[in-house]
């Protein structure tokens, strides 16, 4: 499939809001969506963050309960999705809680491609559960479709620098899965799904890239005065910031759009991306260093332990000297 003919689908999903259900239920739903996508000529289907986990509230899970949700990248759920990809010929991006070989757990997103290729991104800003580790690198890779894909999960997209770095690494399509967590975290409570549906068109225009966004929401819940289901839980944006497809007011299983990659070179954002002047941007790094130094000073002022030498000096000689820690 040529790049100009690549058709992408953003697939929203609904959480039951109840307890934990077996991953096999989610895999069956994903396989059904992939079969439908194949009939419509879709090349890549973008599912939400942590879509393989059917549990709306994670923060209060015990260590044993949370660890039971996690599985390795070659575990049964991802392997079953990969089998569905091979059967349909449609690539699929799915989210899970990954148990790494060293036992750590990450909020990860895996893109399974036809032919058995898999690419994984670990969320950089993870807050869903106290036992989730944060990833430490960006994820950008080439595809047979001629587009270069970057992945940022949920809160990763909140910082402008993350999207810009992904674009500077050559990404022309940003996959931005999301999920609304029922959590005691203030970060989660202040994160309406609608925020990303407003911010991502700006990110796309700034960087001259396509963006595919899909979200998992709790069925029947409310956020302020707006029903979550009425917000854009699936969105595809072009490199000029124009919305190609969205789920506003729709009941379809997914939304889709064809990516015309000629728009990338024509976009204002991509042209200005090539005219950046990195020598001017030093204050960005220096400001971060200053903030960290200030944070350290505040910790010390609140009673942190530091080595300290104290001396009492007379007029003519040193009379007392001692060390305090």
In short:
This protein has 325 residues and is of the alpha/beta class. It has helices at residues 23-39, 63-69, 76-88, 160-168, 186-189, 193-207, 262-266, 268-273, 282-301, and strands at residues 7-10, 13-15, 44-46, 91-99, 105-112, 118-122, 132-133, 139-142, 148-151, 173-179, 210-218, 222-223, 226-227, 234-237, 243-246, 255-258, 308-313, 318-324. Strand 12 and strand 13 form a beta hairpin.
Task: Report on the architecture of this protein.
The chain has a single domain, classed as Nitrilase/N-carbamoyl-D-aminoacid amidohydrolase. It is 30% helix and 27% strand. Helix 1 runs parallel beside helix 3 (76-88). The N and C termini lie far apart (67 Å). The chain is α/β, with parallel strands linked by helices and 325 residues long. The chain has 9 helices and 18 strands. Strand 17 (308-313) and strand 18 form a beta hairpin. The chain has helices at 23-39, 63-69, 76-88, 160-168, 186-189, 193-207, 262-266, 268-273, 282-301, and strands at 7-10, 13-15, 44-46, 91-99, 105-112, 118-122, 132-133, 139-142, 148-151, 173-179, 210-218, 222-223, 226-227, 234-237, 243-246, 255-258, 308-313, 318-324. The strands form 4 sheets. Strands 1, 3, 4, 5, 6, 7 and 16 form a 7-stranded mixed β-sheet that branches. Strands 2, 8, 9, 10, 11, 14 and 15 form a 7-stranded mixed β-sheet that branches. Residues 6-261 form the CN hydrolase domain. Pfam families: CN_hydrolase (PF00795). GO terms for molecular function: hydrolase activity, acting on carbon-nitrogen (but not peptide) bonds, in linear amides. This is Putative amidohydrolase.
């Amino acid at each position: 499939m040529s790049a100009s003919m690549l058709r992408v689908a953003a697939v929203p999903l609904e959480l039951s809001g109840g307890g934990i259900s077996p991953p096999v239920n989610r895999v069956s739903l994903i396989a059904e969506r992939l079969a439908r996508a194949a009939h419509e000529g879709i090349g890549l289907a973008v599912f939400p963050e942590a879509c393989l986990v059917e549990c709306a509230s994670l923060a209060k899970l015990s260590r044993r309960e949370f660890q039971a949700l996690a599985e390795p990248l070659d575990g049964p759920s991802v392997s079953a999705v990969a089998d569905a990809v091979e059967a349909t010929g449609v690539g699929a991006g799915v989210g899970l809680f990954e148990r790494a070989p060293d036992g750590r757990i990450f909020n990860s997103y895996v893109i399974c491609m036809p032919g058995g290729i898999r690419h994984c991104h670990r969320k950089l800003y993870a807050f869903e559960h106290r036992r989730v580790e944060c990833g430490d690198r960006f994820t950008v890779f080439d595809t047979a479709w001629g587009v270069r894909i970057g992945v940022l999960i949920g809160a990763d997209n909140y910082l402008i620098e993350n999207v810009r770095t992904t674009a500077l690494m050559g990404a022309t399509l940003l996959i931005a899965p999301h999920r609304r967590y029922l959590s005691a975290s203030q970060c989660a409570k202040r994160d309406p799904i609608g925020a990303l549906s407003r911010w991502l068109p700006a990110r796309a225009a700034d960087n001259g890239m396509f963006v595919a966004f899909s979200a998992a929401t709790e069925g029947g819940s409310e956020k302020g005065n707006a029903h979550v289901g009425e917000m854009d839980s699936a969105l595809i944006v072009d490199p000029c910031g124009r919305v190609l497809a969205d789920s506003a007011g729709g009941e379809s299983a997914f939304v889709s759009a064809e990516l015309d990659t000629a728009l990338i070179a024509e976009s204002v954002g991509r042209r200005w991306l090539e005219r950046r002047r990195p020598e001017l941007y030093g204050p960005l790094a220096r400001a971060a260093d200053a903030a960290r130094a200030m944070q350290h000073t505040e910790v010390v002022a609140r009673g942190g332990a530091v080595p300290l030498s104290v001396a009492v000096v007379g007029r003519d000689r040193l009379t007392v000297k001692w060390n305090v820690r």
